[in-house]
Design brief:
The complex is a heterodimer of chains A (392) and B (181). About 11% of the residues of chain A have low confidence. Chain A has two domains: 237 residues, Lipoprotein localisation LolA/LolB/LppX (outer membrane lipoprotein receptor (LolB), chain A, Clam); 53 residues, no CATH class. Chain A is 30% helix and 28% strand. Chain A is built from nine helices and 16 strands. Chain A has a twelve-stranded mixed β-sheet with strand order 7-8-9-10-11-1-2-3-4-5-6-12, with helices on one face. In chain A, strands 13-14-15-16 form a four-stranded antiparallel β-sheet, with no helix packed on it. In chain A, a hairpin with an 8-residue loop joins strand 3 and strand 4. Chain B has 181 residues and is an all-alpha fold. Chain B has nine helices and no strands. In chain B, helix 6 crosses helix 9 and helix 7 packs across helix 9. Classes of the chains: A alpha+beta (392), B mainly alpha (181). At the A-B interface, helix 1, helix 2 and helix 5 of A face helix 1, helix 2, helix 3, helix 6 and helix 7 of B.
Chain lengths: 392, 181
């Protein structure tokens, strides 16, 4: 019989280690990691990056998705293309290969993913988008390649060090951590099921942010299938291979010889209202031929009828660099949207509104801490007004 | 789910990801520190225990084998290191620590309510009255949630001997802390 009173008394003995010990242990672990990998030490920023807000990371991911769509969809076909639902830097030295199906809004993309250290390589069918995307989280560079056209786009993300999306495998672990520490999370083990002829254990965890289901080998607990739903993203990963031998050359962000090149820099201070409105202006004026898009979905973005028409008619010619520059100016709009919280009550009502029409509202939101809303009109002018005066 | 998380952490570590140890440390450092301090009554030595435990884990080169729970594994590792340190203490050292008064050296002053702090001090004083083996059994049992069998393996004695130490320890604590224990 355990004396419960003693349990309670012992719980009062709780003692925290000093910050000095925390530092000693962390230093010891870092040193061990360096010795094992033979590589230079992981930067402290990697630890900080783990703690970044999910919102900022999602903003960066969505912005990159849109950049890729604009730049590469104009190369050739009109097939659905999103390639970077989960471009994530990583903090482990493991290699992995797996297949992933990402759904963002109404677009679906299937890709094979390879991970090596802090580098990740996406491979897709060319009909779906850029066939190869390499993201190097250490150098904070993203290289997109279209071999059949010998075209390359290099995006410098060093300014996004605080927001760069994390490696997908690491993000899975962080989601697990978050779910476990969330008192409102519901975590359950489901009945074992047979998956592709293999017996699997199944766990499902849910909280306000999303849901994750893992099918795993009952012996090794290595995942066989994983499904995640989070903030508009749906990701299914299968066919995991852990620690395969991979050629480092697959992850090089050096531009291959003979490739035409465009390059740009993704900035961290993009998610401002001013830059967002400039992105919306380009979307309305250039992609949609002087009217606001019917909605702000990826599908609407992909259509870009105005721009296609001009390119088809030859009234506008754009180099790859110019397309990239344009995409980088539109990206802040999505980055800005991704930072808005539900309580900011963002509304878009601009479908079909002619660009420049000062009488018609396009969208509104409430800044954090503000009592009034910011209502943006067709000429991108802004009026402050209380909720009761919002357009109906 | 906690088990899944721990198994993932152990799996990562065993596959060579030393950074998993950092997450393990962050998860269990308070539990480990509480046990080490409760056994040794010296925060500096308790921190040395934790340091040594993690140094040994690193030297394991990813060969961590957990038979029960990760927390239990770590607390037994702490108990092992604390026992080693306790064994190296001279009689003079022990007397010095025992003479320090109400609060163990370097242990942060209690930040709980006064009643809670008083309870803690009473328990610390009472635990200090127990022989090390009995104190270890009581703390592993009540803080580490360890089974008698596991404690017996750790102390290298029979299970009945551990149970006897536990009974004697409780009896002593009851005499010091009150019959309602």
């Amino acid at each position: 019989m355990r004396p419960k009173k003693l349990d309670q008394l012992v719980s009062n003995l709780e003692t925290q280690p000093s910050e000095g010990l925390d530092r000693r242990i962390a230093a010891m672990i870092r040193q061990a990691a360096r010795q094992r990998s033979g590589e230079r030490p992981p930067e402290p920023v990697l630890w900080r990056r783990i703690m970044r807000s999910r919102t900022a990371r999602i903003a960066a991911v969505i912005a990159l998705v849109l950049v890729g769509i604009l730049v590469f969809q104009l190369f050739d076909n009109s097939a659905s293309v999103t390639w970077a639902g989960v471009i994530d830097p990583l903090v482990t030295a493991e290699t992995a290969v797996f297949n992933i199906v990402t759904r963002l809004q109404d677009a679906t993309i299937e890709a094979k993913i390879m991970v090596m250290g802090q580098r990740i390589r996406y491979e897709m069918e060319s009909a779906q988008g850029p066939p190869i995307v390499i993201f190097d989280a250490e150098r904070l560079e993203m290289l997109t390649l279209v071999p059949e056209r010998k075209a390359a786009v290099l995006v410098d993300m060093t300014d996004l060090v605080d927001q760069a999306p994390e490696n997908y495998l690491a993000s899975i672990r962080n989601v697990i951590n978050e779910l476990e520490s969330d008192p409102n999370a519901s975590i359950e083990r489901l009945a074992d099921v047979e998956l592709d002829g293999r017996n699997t254990v199944v766990f499902r965890a849910q909280n306000d942010d999303g849901e994750m289901t893992v099918w795993a080998d009952p012996e090794t607990l290595l995942p066989i299938r994983l499904e995640q739903r989070l903030s508009g993203l749906s990701v299914t990963s299968t066919d995991f291979q852990f620690d395969p031998e991979l050629d480092p050359a697959l992850f090089s962000t050096e531009i291959p010889a003979g490739y035409s090149t465009a390059s740009s820099q993704m900035r961290s201070d993009n998610a401002t209202e001013e830059k967002a409105l400039e992105g919306l202006r380009i979307w309305a004026q250039i992609l949609e031929d002087n009217q606001f898009p019917p909605d702000l979905s990826t599908a609407a973005y992909q259509k870009m009828p105005g721009l296609r028409k001009k390119l088809r008619e030859g009234t506008l010619t754009l180099t790859t660099q110019e397309k990239l520059d344009m995409a980088m100016k539109i990206a802040p709009f999505s980055q800005f949207l991704a930072t808005l919280k539900p309580e900011q009550d963002w509304q878009y009502v601009g479908g079909g509104v002619p660009f420049g029409d000062a009488s018609q509202p396009v969208c509104w939101y409430k800044p954090i801490g503000s009592e009034t809303y910011r209502v943006i009109y067709g000429d991108l002018s802004i009026k402050e007004m209380p909720k009761e005066d919002l357009p109906r | 789910m906690a088990s899944l998380r721990n198994r993932i952490l152990i799996g990562r570590f065993n596959k060579g990801d030393v950074h998993a140890l950092q997450e393990i440390y962050d998860l269990y450092k308070t539990d480990m520190m509480t046990l080490a301090t409760g056994l040794l009554f010296d925060k500096t030595q308790a921190e040395d225990v934790l340091h040594e435990v993690f140094a040994k884990l690193i030297r394991l080169q990813g060969r961590m084998r957990i038979r029960s729970t990760l927390r239990g594994y770590l607390l037994r590792a702490v108990a092992n290191e604390a026992r080693t340190i306790n064994g190296t203490r001279t009689r003079k050292d022990r007397a010095r620590i025992d003479e320090r008064g109400d609060s163990p050296r370097n242990v942060d002053p209690p930040e709980h309510a006064a009643a809670l702090a008083e309870e803690r001090h009473r328990l610390e004083r009472s635990l200090r009255e127990l022989p090390y083996d009995q104190r270890e059994v009581v703390l592993l049992r009540h803080h580490g949630q360890a089974r008698f069998k596991a404690i017996a393996e750790h102390q290298g004695v029979s299970m009945s001997a551990v149970q006897a130490r536990y009974r004697r320890g409780l009896k002593k604590l009851r005499s010091l802390l009150g019959a309602d224990l």
